[in-house]
């Protein structure tokens, strides 16, 4: 895929192209991103396979599978190459042949193909959401199926074998490779942050701990069954339910999916099948319970970007900037934060009293657990503040009720709000006096749910 295509924000539009309804799809059938035959529908019409137009570019399309009967038309699979989404220009054609699927651009150049090692007789979009290429001579044998090549989502009746991987999107509407991966390998389910945009993996932030040196007792399959239960099946047949995984009844009245969301939370969702207005996907269960505090590695930024901190809102990570900082990208709270003034050992350092230039702002129960370069104890809070103010390398000091003071340098990483601990922790933020510079584009970071300065009301989050 060329760099221009990769640089496009892969934003999904709600309007759909017209579609073709079919049970089994014969060889020679085609779909075009400009024709009326833009998708193949399952017999129940619950799912569709075909082209979806991108709302940031009317001339680019995504080859995908989606829920067909709900207004959101939620995508659960898309064609990809090396974990990058395949983008089809307007006028591209997908053809079903005896050797598989082939997607060509308007000039006849191959964009993407799927060529199984068996001869294909026909294809079908099943009522499970699985798109299959049927092997010649055996209707029950699939030469290829989307269920065995998942992207970020699995559906009821889908089974992940050892070695399977889910890759999150970059953002909620950008289908590019994201910052988190789900691996079912070595007998365990692992959730792993990656050093985006590289494939390097940091330490996992969740594990099912179902590996055993005795392969008979080790995890063998990750199963999403017909009853919408998700569990790990061991080689000995034992079932290991995911922790606190809830069950919803009646099953037949809902659609279900489990998605590794762009924010790193693996979530099972349900959607009512009735036609009542204002319906939406709602959460059945999620892993981990608190991603803000689950990610713990000396490398990487954590659930949020560098110099920001994470707090939980309705089970999802929400990113905030500390006082005196702004989001790097005001439209993306996961982009990290930057100070609204120059920090470091610059010309101001030593020329004026530190108390004239800087002041300390406090956040309660916020910590950046890594990046310490000095630990001072026993110290009272005033001594801790003074030490940071007079140290040009100090961006933040963390102080707790054990009279310990940790000084931290840039960039701040793995920031999190956590009031569940037993120790009372204060983040002492060093900020420039006088507020924003005159020529600074002020974009305040205060949002509902952030820990407010000490002495004011701490807004709650659920």
From TrEMBL:
- Organism's domain of life? Eukaryota
Pfam families the record matches: B_lectin (PF01453)
Keyword annotations from UniProtKB, A to Z: Disulfide bond, Glycoprotein, Signal
Q: Does the keyword 4Fe-4S apply?
A: no
The cross-references to InterPro entries, in alphabetical order and at most eight, read: Bulb-type_lectin_dom (IPR001480), Bulb-type_lectin_dom_sf (IPR036426), G-type_lectin_kinases/EP1-like (IPR051343)
Extract the signal peptide range.
1-22
What sequence ranges are listed for the domain Bulb-type lectin?
Answer: 32-146
Family matches, as PANTHER family: G-TYPE LECTIN S-RECEPTOR-LIKE SERINE/THREONINE-PROTEIN KINASE SD2-5, RECEPTOR-LIKE SERINE_THREONINE-PROTEIN KINASE
Name of the molecule in the record: Bulb-type lectin domain-containing protein
- Recorded source organism is Citrus sinensis (Sweet orange)
């Amino acid at each position: 895929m060329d760099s221009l295509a990769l640089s496009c924000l892969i934003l999904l539009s709600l309007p759909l192209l017209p579609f073709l309804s079919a049970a089994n799809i014969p060889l020679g059938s085609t779909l075009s991103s400009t024709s009326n035959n833009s998708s193949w529908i399952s017999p129940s019409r619950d799912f569709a396979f075909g082209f979806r137009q991108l709302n940031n570019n009317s001339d680019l399309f995504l080859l995908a599978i989606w829920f067909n009967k709900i207004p959101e038309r939620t995508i659960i699979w898309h064609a990809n190459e090396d974990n990058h989404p395949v983008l089809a220009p307007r006028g591209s054609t997908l053809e079903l042949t005896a050797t598989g699927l082939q997607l060509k651009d308007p000039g006849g150049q191959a964009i993407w193909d799927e060529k199984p090692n068996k001869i294909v007789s026909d294809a079908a979009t099943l009522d499970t959401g699985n798109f299959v290429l049927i092997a010649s001579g055996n209707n029950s044998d699939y030469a290829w199926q989307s269920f065995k090549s998942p992207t970020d989502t699995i559906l009821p009746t889908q089974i992940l074998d050892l070695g399977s991987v889910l890759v999150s999107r970059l953002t909620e509407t950008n289908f590019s490779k994201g910052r988190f991966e789900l691996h079912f390998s070595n007998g365990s389910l692992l959730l792993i942050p990656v050093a985006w945009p590289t494939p390097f993996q940091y330490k996992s932030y969740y594990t099912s701990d179902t590996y055993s040196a005795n392969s008979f007792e080790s995890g063998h399959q990750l199963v999403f069954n017909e009853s919408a239960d998700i569990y790990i099946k061991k080689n000995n047949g034992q079932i290991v339910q995911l922790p606190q995984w809830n069950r919803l009844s009646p099953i037949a009245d809902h659609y279900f999916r489990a998605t590794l969301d762009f924010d790193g939370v693996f979530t099972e969702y349900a959607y009512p099948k009735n036609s009542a207005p204002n319906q939406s996907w709602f959460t059945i269960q999620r892993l981990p319970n608190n991603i803000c505090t689950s990610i713990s590695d000396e490398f990487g930024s954590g659930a949020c970007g560098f110099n920001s901190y994470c707090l939980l809102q309705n089970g999802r990570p929400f990113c905030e900037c500390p006082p005196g900082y702004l989001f790097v990208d005001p439209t993306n709270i996961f982009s990290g934060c930057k100070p609204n003034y120059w920090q470091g050992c610059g010309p101001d350092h030593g020329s004026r009293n530190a108390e004239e230039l800087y002041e300390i702002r406090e956040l309660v129960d916020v910590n950046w657990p890594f990046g310490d370069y000095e630990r001072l104890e026993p110290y009272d809070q005033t001594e801790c503040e003074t030490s940071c103010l007079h140290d040009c390398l100090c961006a933040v000091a963390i102080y707790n009720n054990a009279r310990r003071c940790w000084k931290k340098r840039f960039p701040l990483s793995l920031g999190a709000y956590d009031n569940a601990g037993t120790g009372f922790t204060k983040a002492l933020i060093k900020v420039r006096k006088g507020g924003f510079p005159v020529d600074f584009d002020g974009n305040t970071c205060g949002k509902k749910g952030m820990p407010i300065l000490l002495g004011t009301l701490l807004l709650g989050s659920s």
